């Protein structure tokens, strides 16, 4: 059973991202399932820190993008979702390829939502574990 309260698609998410930090960093939405959203970010000159590793802040941008989009589309029409708190545990450095994130809800409540976002490298190894808490506003 789908958790989405508003029409959602990869195309809708991609259109919403035009002209934003999401597009600037090269983040691409990949899939929308009944209870998840996935997207990826390239590891390149836009997203690396001086040591040649994916910047931890970019991992958090990917995580927050996925969690925020999930919360927005899982909220009733006329409601919006805004971030209250995000954390990220950086587990492994990445120097090339793509990092793919998948967001799934932990809790969808009337006034708050909590989303878990797991980021993996091209080999499927965990790069970052993140969790975001969202406030649902009318």
Automatic annotation (TrEMBL):
Keywords: Hydrolase. Residues 51-127 form the Thioesterase domain. SUPFAM superfamilies: Thioesterase/thiol ester dehydrase-isomerase. Gene3D superfamilies: Hotdog Thioesterase. Belongs to the thioesterase PaaI family. NCBIfam families: unchar_dom_1. This is Uncharacterized protein (TIGR00369 family). It comes from Rhodoferax ferrireducens.
